[in-house]
Amino acid sequence: MYLKHSLRDPRFFQIVFLGSFLIFGLSFLNWQIPIQVITVVFLTIAITQALAILKYKLTYQSILSAIISGLGLVLLLRANETSTYVIAGILSIAPKFLIRYNGKHIFNPVNFGIIITILITDDAWISPGQWGSASTYLLGIGIFSWLVLTKVKQLINGLVFLGTLFILETCYLNFYLEWPIDFIFHKFTSGSLLLFSFFMITDPRTTPKHITTRAIWASIVAVISFYLMEFHYLSSAPFWVLFFISPLTPFLDSIHKSKNFNWKQMINN
Amino acid sequence: MKKTNLLFGALTAFTISANAFCGFYVAKAGGKLFNKSSQVILARNSETNRNTITMANDYQGDFSEFAMVVPVPVILKKDEIKVIQKDLFERFDSYSAPRLTEYFDRNPCYTDVQKYKALAMSDSNFEMVEEEASINIKYEGVKIEAKYEIGEYDILILSATESNGLKNWLTDNDYKIPSGADEVLTPYIKDNMKFFVAKVNTERLNQRRGNYLSPIQISFTHKKFMLPIRLGMANANGTQDLIVYALTQNGRVETSNYRTQEMPSNQKIPLFVEGVFGDFYKSVFSKKWTNNKSSVFVEYAWNLDGKNFAKCDPCNTTPPASQELLNAGVDWLNMNQNNWGSSYQGNLHFTRLHVRYDREHFPQDLAFTETKNKQNFQCRYVLTHPASISDELCDHVLPYYKKVQKRRGDEMNNLTDITWWEANRYQAYLKKYKTKIASLEVQEKDDENNLLPVFPKGYTPNQLLIISAGILLILCSILRVAFSKKKQIYSLK
Question: Is pTM beyond 0.90 here?
Fold first, then answer.
């Protein structure tokens, strides 16, 4: 009964999918992530989350969110020193409890952890090319995210983000600059971009509550990302845009009021 | 001697870090191995966005027919174009090429003497530039923004508003532009790129010594950190190889729109590779590329910070000197002169990337990103020479031979894993120690036989059994006869 109940939690699927991406990267894409890095990230995250559970009297199921953050960090962040991963781990969990507005945390935990670690440590980076580009990614991540995200009705964020970006890129690169169409396909089958679209921008806790504001919000992220990628050659633009746009969420929420998202309620429903 | 001593060479070979290297450099596989290959040095100052791109020409045909067209993001000024001496590429290539290192096992019974090989280096300086005033001529929408004479080259910087005009201009001026070039000329023109075009002036070439084309170096300040490879693919049949030497401040350079991965390295390989290391590495690259055709491969990455003393380990050749780095466009280091020569202070990372590209797998130009990755990496393959043992009577020899035999098996497995080479063609390599082990095992059994000194060497246990049984029977018969004789004697009495 308990297991059946847990399986209804989309976070469980998300862990399975992100975990399988990690295994795929390690075994087929020759990622050089030492086992001690993975261990350190999960230990840091578990300890930080456990402290938060004790202090704020949370349910133990909140550890699922922490595991997702851990997988996100291992999948996206790269650093020379193991200590940098410790900093990133703490920064991915602590702000959930410390930086809050109106009963809701403002920043996407993994995004916050990655960006702040890059800014303060001078030792961390994102590898936008680490997945390469393959049409199967589009299919695979599409199916996975459909299974998870239709349940939390956040697919709209990813779809609006990707859709807006696709329209802008196609208009600019294909219609205006006249690059052949496989130029665009190469861009939109990039594993990093798809992972961002379906697993970072879709976090139900840190995106605006109302569906219309969420769509507007995702398209703003896409427009700014497009501008930075094409005119300032910043390949990791979406991560930076998401970080700097996150404080806008409470403002957008105040325009369109809707109930706060809660994993527990969602499962019970 | 204990087993741990026997394994000393082998273990260090596997667990070494950059600080604890104890093998010796023996051979390298440089960029010239690959047909249709070009080499580019990219120096990028991330604070000022200053890019310096140096392109080597390995053009083999008639020099008067040589022409190159490179899209550049800005109109280059006269002092932003240079020709430099080509030995800079040779230096960077030999410094960063995949390398073969060798270890020597200790004789398990006593210490053997190690051997090693050493090398030499060359130096470089550069020659300069000539310039003419820029002329503006209209030609079917094409504008000549600038015209320079630099080294043996006549150089023009063109801007264009439509690809047909540019194509016609280039064709009419004897630049052989391939038929498929339209596909890329338009995007470059619309992206406001300019075109750097160069032809060889044979008169000036003849005034210079040496029958080769000098590398051309261009510098410009722009946010773009990329290499335009698409124009070169327009008419290319099959694949082309490109080796990029990137010099940056913070860390390793990766491509942001293609996967960047490391080549297989630190593998123990059989001794017979030594004579054919070039072919071996070609096969390693070919296999890796076949399985990852849209990837860019790291062949070398090293932290060359002024304060880092281990600027290579093992060294194919001496690390780039401060003047060479300056020639390559590294403008952010503080150069010092002292009694021991020149040195530098500041951050520097050297990355060598190898790309094998074609139209199908590389639809976009190479876009680079500079990471903070300071991890050193080199394509290094390890040979382990067994000890030569003259006296095989020592107890440690058989276990040592077994170890060598197992290692040779591993080396063959590595070889077949990373290259297309087939193990069954190299059976003799495995057989050598198999035979030695077999003969030693026989000897050991003989030694056991020596416990019964009555029996001479060369008998197998079965023979021994038969002989023993025979002797026993004879003894029994003698006793029996003796006994029965006594009986008879008694009975006679």
Answer: no
